[in-house]
Amino acid sequence: MDLGTVTQMRDARRREQWRPGDAYLGGGTYLFSEPQPHIRRLVDLGSMGWEPLEITPDGLVIAATCTVARLNRFTAPPGWQACHPLIEQCCRSFLASFKIWNMATVGGNICNALPAGPMISLTAALEGEATLLALDGGVRRLPVAEFVTGNGRKVLREGELLRSVTLPTYALRSRTAFRQGSLHRLGRSAALVIGRHDPADGSFTLTVTASTPRPVRLWFPLPPSAAQLRAAVEQAVPPGAWFDDIYGLPEWRRHLTLRFAEEIRAELTTAPVAPGEE
Question: What is the spatial distance between Cα 42 and Cα 31, in angstroms, rounded to a whole number?
């Protein structure tokens, strides 16, 4: 659709004063999906030339401008067992067609800060660290789980942008389990829960998204019992803290989350089956 209030577009490589009505443009799938009467100027990130995906000694660096389709095609090096099938599972949790996949960006989904944002789910569950750039060149880093603070709310300051998310190697070497539920087969996620078991230290992490306004991360030095896990979820998300919208009532989201959490705990505390032993 046309953004009738937009009067200018500028290249993001040019450092200019941020002004009211400015908005960063990545893939544009959200910006062009509904009226944005407050926007006057678009700052195009498409010319930044960021490499979509980079394997580094620290892990996998995902540029904010990396498309969902490109991320879904990523071939992980040996040992990064968390990438398959978790990346594809999260990509397929979008309420979007493959056409959107080819334009929608990882950074855009994270910066929208919606509870059902599957790129938030993926990167928070894999201990992602967000790199933020200020207009004056300043850089700050923080966990993705802390980047989103509520429904549509994030910690970005005026003019600041999300440059990339780094998924650390130790998280990529973990076993993962995924559960997602919605009111309809292709509907928006009402609960999306990801578990991670680290083979190096034996720790267990559960990340709850979609059923809560912001990611909830629970870490245990060793896999918890069913009762311990349920108690931890109930303590982290007390009554009244479950998300409530037309895609699911709070009590139902709580039910799904607790059910998924136990399924994930059982799956990850069972020894993996080696190829040929099925």
Answer: 10
Q: 257: which strand partners? A: none
DSSP state of 76: P
Taking CA 32 as the corner, what is the angle to CA 26 and CA 33, rounded to the nearest 5 degrees?
Answer: 120
Q: What is the dihedral of CA 86, 88, 93, 97, to 10 degrees?
A: 170
Q: Taking every pair of C-alpha atoms in the chain, what is the biggest distance, in angstroms?
A: 63
Task: Evaluate whether 153 touches 216 at the Cβ level (below 8 Å).
Answer: no
Residue 247 corresponds to which amino acid? Y
Residue 23 CB neighbour total at 10 angstroms: 14
DSSP symbol at 82: G
Neighbour tally for 93: CB within 10 Å: 22
Question: Per residue in 193-238, pLDDT tens?
Answer: 999 999 999 999 999 999 999 999 999 999 999 999 999 999 999 9
Q: Side by side, which strands form the sheet with 216-220? A: 175-182, 189-197, 204-209, 216-220
> Checking DSSP bridges between strand 189-197 and strand 204-209, what pairing results, if any?
antiparallel
CA gap 112, 148 in Å, rounded: 9
Question: How far is it, in rounded angstroms, from Cα 114 to Cα 209?
Answer: 10
pTM over 0.85: yes
The model's pLDDT over 131-182, given as tens digits with 9 standing for 90+, comes to: 999 998 899 999 999 999 999 999 999 999 999 999 999 999 999 999 999 9
Sign of the dihedral defined by the CA atoms of residues 167, 225, 199, 260, in that order = negative
